[in-house]
Give the backbone structure.
Amino acid sequence: MESSEFILEAKDIVKDFAESDGSPRRVLDGISFGVKRREFLSIIGPSGCGKSTLIRIAAGLETVTSGHFLLDGKKVSGTSAERGMVFQKYTLFPWLSVKQNVMFGLISSGYGSNDAEESALQWLQIVGLEKYAEYYPKQLSGGMQQRVAIARALAPQPRVLLMDEPFGALDAQTRSQMQKYLLEVWKNIDITILFVTHDLDEAVFLSDRILTLQANPGKVKELVTVDVPRPRTEESLFLPEFKTLRSHVEDLIHPVSEKKPEEETFNIVNMVGKKNAVR
């Protein structure tokens, strides 16, 4: 088999959903891209572009109409411990302790009980929650619950971590903390991350590259390289290259030609109002 620079590849992914009358509605149309080993690649696009559907296909949780994903050159079929998944909702089992939640993924991957417990405690230490091993999810904050979910996904040591808007339900301060925390974990372990978000700042802050999609149906618009230097901090958001790249991605997702006339009028009125306020 011919070698590839990519650990994960999408090959002409097409996905149709059935309408109520049985007719097909195309959600994804010919999606192709590759993710390099240890790369952090984000997917972003307008509502209805199929971001979540695409990452669920990569996880093996959704079927395709045609096309396929490759992992290390082999066709992806169904779920696998090589592909960990973190959802927007924490998806923890409320009746299990924090340690038991992390153990669940390990035992499902074939670990014995003792080995699963030892590994779970190690991963809880990595995500800074070893002191909460015997707590239950309801006793933790939203950010802490998501850290448990990340530990559970990483514990079986997947090749790729798939994340579907994992911080979307968090408040702004917790979200910022989790972004920095995720970058720290990613820096220290051998993991490739495919990350879905609707937040432009988050995409630029976290990523090596950004896959932008257009909607109806979802198609690749552009694969953008993020040239903002690492390590990144809050100050990175004010760098000229950060602002320029963010503006470029926003234009890809919401081009001026697609704005409604009333949106343009609203923007003009706002600009005039700001100028008058300055005077």
Q: What stands out?
A: Residues 92-157 form one domain. The chain is about 35% helix and 25% strand.
